[in-house]
Each structure stands twice: as structure tokens, then as C-alpha cells.
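We were asked to recover a plausible sequence for a given structure. The inputs and outputs are reproduced exactly as logged, with field labels preserved.

PROBLEM: sequence recovery
POSITIONS: 322
GIVEN STRUCTURE:
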């Protein structure tokens, strides 16, 4: 074992017989280290950090047996690749465990090719410093959910591993609530309902997500709160958190988000609706965020106003009467 690595010795109990390796060990590992999620354990398996009787185990679907003793090697957190960069952030709430951000349009969450600097991660590194969560084996902010670059609104970020684990559990059991407002083409019928359609990566374009039978379960509840004829304002509540979920689901029911260049399908408005066609981004805003505080257990509720560009768009199309 290399310096700074730690090892967890995990013994399968009698009631664990027949479970998948990743599921059984994730439960056991979380008891020793609350920051270890099942996704993180699966990544460690893929990297060859799990062994049984001296032999490396990489198949997370293998069924375990009672009494088996597994060794899980935890590598030390890697140094954060992004640089700390001071930026103005709209901080709605902050304490020693969490920070709630009202993300503006155009701000990328994580550094990626083409957006290495001036992301939310860079800003959080500068704002929070060494107090940030190192969960996932990377010493960087504990972002437990993301917003697309051109989606605005509320995000919660964990400032330590325990908070990250607690928030991740709330995402998993759906006790964390997120509500969005979207301006969409047309008017969904019925005016209130649920879109229950699995989402996976598109087989035609790997950069896009799509509704598909073999995708992961995805559920979005919606209701129309403003009917403008050629467009409508729709409230969406996420029951799951798949990539691009609201945008994919609304496009799936033939009412894509206005300004969505990826899933909008080149939608064109009727004469008099040029204001919609010219909107330069997806008209989607994370309006409300509710969660249980990871330390106190108290319900925290936050609300964000529509950004100026989207509010102006809603006023404009409403004033035209559709």
C-alpha cells in the first residue's frame, strides 16, 4: 500500500448473501466512511482498488457470499486541478456545512475543455479555501448537483464530506426538492401532470441525452402557470436528477424549452412571436430549493427571482397575448 493510502476491511454479513458487490460494499463502506457513495465505490472498483483473497475485483455486479472479506484501498485526495479565482458570487446562504448560490446565466459549474477558468469551482476554491469537501477523491468543492451553463438559479454546495454525504442521500431518497420555471413552446395538455420517461445518452449523438427504454428512471412533475397561446410558463419539479432532465422531458412531450438549441428541434414561432425565436438561451431557471440541513436536520427553503432576461421575455410574450 502506498503512503497516505488507507484500507477498509469489509466483511460480508449473513444478510448480505447474494447482493451485488458494489451495493453490499457501498453499505458497509459508508458505515466506516460516510463520504463514500456507491458511485465512488464503483469508480474505485474500476480502478482496481478492491481485492478479495489477494485478487483484484472489478466486477461490481458479482454476487457476494456471507463471510467474504474484501479489502478496499482508498487513495488520498488528489490536489485540485482548478486554480482558485476570486469572482463575485450571489451567495444566498452560507454556514460551516453548506453554501447556497444563485447561479447566473453563462457561469459554467465545472472546468472542462473550452472552459478551464472562471467556473463556479474556481470561484468556490477562492471563497472557501481548504474547508471544501474532498469527497470523490478530489480536493475540490462538493458539488452534489449541477446546472447547465445557460440555466440560472439556485444550487447547494457541500463544504465538508459529511454534508456532501447527507445531501447526496437526500437527492437519492428524493427528500431534497427542486422547482424550476421554464418558458416552453405551446401549451402542454393536460395542464398538469407527470412525465415518467427513462433518460440515457443518445445513441445518435453522445453529447445529447434522450428518452429511451434502457435509460435510467426519470420523473418530472409539471403544471402550466401561464398560458400565452404560442408559449406557456411551466413549473417543473424534479423527482429524479438526470442530466438535462427537464429539457429532455419537455422536448419529449413536444413542448421544448424556448431558446434550447440542443433539444428545441429548430422550433419556430408564429408571426408576432419573434421575441421568442430571438431569445439566446434556454429559458429555464431553478426557482426554489428545499433541503434538510445536514447538521441540524431543519428544513431550509430558498427562492430565487427570475433573471432579468427571462422576466423580460415572459412580460413581452404575455403582453402580445400569444
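RECOVERED SEQUENCE:
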Amino acid at each position: 500500500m502506498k503512503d497516505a493510502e488507507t484500507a477498509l476491511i469489509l466483511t460480508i454479513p449473513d444478510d448480505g448473501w447474494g447482493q451485488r458487490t458494489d451495493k453490499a460494499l457501498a453499505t458497509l463502506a459508508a458505515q466506516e466512511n460516510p463520504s463514500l457513495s456507491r458511485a465512488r465505490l464503483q469508480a474505485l472498483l474500476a480502478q482496481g482498488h478492491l481485492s478479495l483473497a489477494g485478487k483484484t475485483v472489478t466486477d461490481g455486479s458479482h454476487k457476494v457470499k456471507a463471510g467474504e472479506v474484501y479489502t478496499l484501498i482508498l487513495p488520498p485526495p488528489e490536489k485540485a486541478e482548478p486554480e482558485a479565482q476570486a469572482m463575485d458570487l450571489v451567495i444566498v446562504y452560507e454556514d460551516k456545512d453548506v453554501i447556497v448560490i444563485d447561479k447566473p446565466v453563462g457561469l459554467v459549474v465545472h472546468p472542462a475543455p473550452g472552459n478551464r477558468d472562471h467556473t463556479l469551482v474556481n470561484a468556490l476554491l477562492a471563497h472557501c479555501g481548504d474547508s471544501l469537501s474532498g469527497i470523490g477523491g478530489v480536493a475540490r468543492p462538493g458539488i452534489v448537483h449541477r446546472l447547465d451553463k445557460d440555466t440560472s438559479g439556485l444550487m447547494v454546495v457541500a463544504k465538508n464530506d459529511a454534508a456532501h454525504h447527507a445531501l447526496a442521500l437526500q437527492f437519492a431518497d428524493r427528500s431534497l426538492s427542486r422547482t424550476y420555471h421554464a418558458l416552453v413552446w405551446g401549451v402542454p395538455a393536460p395542464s398538469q401532470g407527470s412525465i415518467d420517461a427513462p433518460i440515457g445518452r443518445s445513441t445518435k449523438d453522445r453529447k445529447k441525452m434522450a428518452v429511451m427504454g434502457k435509460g435510467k428512471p426519470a420523473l418530472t412533475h409539471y403544471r402550466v402557470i401561464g398560458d400565452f397561446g404560442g408559449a406557456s410558463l411551466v413549473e417543473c419539479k424534479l423527482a429524479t436528477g438526470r442530466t438535462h432532465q427537464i429539457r429532455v422531458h419537455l422536448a419529449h412531450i413536444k413542448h421544448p424549452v424556448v431558446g434550447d438549441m440542443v433539444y428545441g428541434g429548430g422550433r419556430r414561432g408564429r408571426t408576432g412571436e419573434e421575441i421568442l425565436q430571438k431569445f439566446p438561451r434556454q429559458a429555464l431557471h431553478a426557482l426554489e430549493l428545499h433541503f434538510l440541513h445536514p447538521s441540524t436536520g431543519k428544513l431550509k427553503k430558498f427562492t430565487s427571482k427570475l433573471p432579468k432576461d427571462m422576466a423580460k421575455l415572459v412580460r413581452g410574450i404575455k403582453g402580445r397575448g400569444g
